[in-house]
Sequence to fold (340 residues):
Amino acid sequence: MGIYTYLNRNTISAGNMINRVLLMTDYQKKKTKARGFPNLLYIEPTNFCNLDCLMCVRRKMKRAVGYMEMSLFSKIIDEVKRYPVELIYLMMFGESLFHKNLIDMVKYCKKAGLKVGISTNATVLNAEISRKIVESGLDFFIISFDSVDPSTYNKIRKGARYEKTRENIETFLRIKGKRKPTTIIQSLIMKGNRLEKKKVQGIFSRYDVTIKFRPVHNWSGEDEDINELQVNQRNLNQNELCDKIWRHLTIQWDGTVVPCCNIYDKQISFGNVKEKTLKEIWNGERMKGFRKAHILGRGKIKFCKDCSYCGLSTKEKIALTVFDSLSQEKILYNSKKWRD
Ligand SMILES: C[S@@+](CC[C@H](N)C(=O)[O-])C[C@H]1O[C@@H](n2cnc3c(N)ncnc32)[C@H](O)[C@@H]1O
Ligand code: SF4
Ligand code: SF4
Fold:
């Protein structure tokens, strides 16, 4: 795939480029105030999930299970459409397809000129939902499918059935054909699933889809069972500055704003979008204080010290400055090696 594949309006727009440069400069210069606006947002439609996957930290979640109100969702989008936001992921700790307004959410973003992505476990991805997804204008669709061996799959994705998920995925891919969304079948690599790339590729080779194998990360490292699942672990360097808090924001279904998608409860919160704008929260005292604590040393922050999900190589810093967030995701999913 050539570099031109990744050039789109968001990549070349002067406003977006300036924003990316500001975000990366403030990160590298260790500024507590970020002059840019986060160009990638995670919004959690719901934290309800029908599965209990081996590698997912969701099982530790204690906060209430609920669904984001459409009025709150539109308030967020009405604010952020004014800023150089390049990708909205409608997902976090739950299965977004269970939100009755998910398709309306996608359409609302598209009407506002925003790019949208979703990740799904595909257990309820039937023909009707598949058609609606394709027609909604969704840009990026990650389908989780962690093993081609039925018993391994059923063990990893506890509560799902291999045959049903595979049938759902194939139904979706048939309906989609060569149209949008750009679709990824993502297999998480962990101890216990000996994946054979060729087999997965064999199953889906006739469809317009990218297969991605990605090592599991440890969320924040506090779950021993998940730590144990990791393969090809990165050497943790606690002095590595977390890039996420200079580039992203995550909003839980009730409006609570947290630094990243590792925060399954409310361990670290910067406020609520029902009470403040995202712009105020982004450079509010709590967020600036959190950046400062990171600058002084991640190793001293309880929740962040063992996190394997942050820090950037020089190559990545360049890519994150040059490309928009959606292209960054596509590049990552097409690259030979996942950095985690
Ligand atoms: C928390 S899930 C929510 C979306 C949806 N329920 C799903 O499973 O696709 C978001 C993404 O995190 C991935 N994920 C879960 N546990 C992971 C881990 N330990 N390391 C890396 N990715 C993980 C899932 O496969 C999914 O792509
Ligand atoms: S990985 Fe997705 S499907 Fe599995 S428990 Fe977590 S949120 Fe649910
Ligand atoms: S160090 Fe990890 S857990 Fe902490 S804010 Fe960064 S990405 Fe999130």
